[in-house]
């Protein structure tokens, strides 16, 4: 289990307390951030000389073994910041954006109706193949 949680950085207490000052602000950020008591960062690096298979294993390690541990620690109402999130997050809409996803997706559709601009695990990316090369 120690290997499964190696590379975890936890910020808590005063370093997170200023987020609650923005609780009344309507923004794209997941509402869970406004009441966060902890901020976890999990890093799974690879060496510059790593093979493609080693890089792929490092990229999927979070979902394969670490996500369940972190989700158990954080509980069901936690959220993730998309810029620090895992691009392989299967429920990115709920996990990164929470109740804001529907509104944000509508805004993106209004200004980008043909999905010219896409990002993995971002607004509307569920309409695209995982390679980002074509719509589903």
Automatic annotation (TrEMBL):
Q: Signal peptide span per the entry?
A: none
Instruction: Report the residue ranges that make up the Berberine/berberine-like domain in this protein.
Output: 81-118
Q: Name one GO molecular function term.
A: oxidoreductase activity
**Superkingdom of this protein's organism:** Eukaryota
Q: Which Pfam families match?
A: BBE
Q: Per its record, how is this protein called by name?
A: Berberine/berberine-like domain-containing protein
